[in-house]
Predict the 3D structure of the following.
Amino acid sequence: MRHFSLSPWLTALALALGLAAVPTGRAATVATSSTDDANTEPRSGEYRVTVFPFHRITDELTGFGYLGYVANPDKDYTTDYLGWGASYTSSPTVQWWAGLVGTYTNNLTSSDKLELRPFVGLKNFVQNKAKWNIYNYARWEYRTIQDRTSGDWARYSRFRDRIGVEFPLASEADAWKPETWYGLADAEVMYRFDRNQVDPCRLRAGIAYIVSDRVRVEFIYHMQWTRPGGGDLKYTDNIFRLNIKIALTKGRLLNRLVNPGMESGIDD
């Protein structure tokens, strides 16, 4: 029996809310002065470098790591990431994920934060003849965050769902081969159970280069909607990411039949 996630409906709802929060056309010109100021508020720029190594344990089981560094000069913080886990491919269209991500955020104007984030996930794939990697990745996370000044911990669960596609920018004969390019795009929504609301949601697009059958480099841009001050969803952040995927087992990165979509990686 195939497994499918119903969570794309939540993704569609969140994107509708996010797009509705962006002022457009005539409505923006008749808003009050305070609304105009809020809508034209500068959006922060965040810059990420992430490395995603993985290795074959068995044909169905793959272990992975997650290393990352994030800098946001507009909001005066940097964050270091360290994570690990495994994925299990139970069929050509179903993959199960579990892992733990740890982060440390150095804030220049407020208390530092330490976070431990275990997660489990389900990734579904759509088989197709075009050699596109079309997927839905749903996961549950448990966030435990410590204020390093007070020592207090905050804890809450979060559900997130991503619908994505990766498509070769080469001929069908050369698709996914070394020294070729591919594009990617996805939409993701995150639901916080402590507040019973969507926050944040993201749209992403990027271009990537297959260096070899063991290395890929991706350049990704994110648009992010959040709830400043707990209010409505607003387009608040631009995120620029360099993502490097490294297969520690030769040929693993391109073996899409054994482990389809493994190269899609995880995200924070």
Remarks:
- The chain has a mean pLDDT of 83.
- The radius of gyration is 19 Å.
- The domain at 8-264 is CATH 2.40.160.40 (Porin).
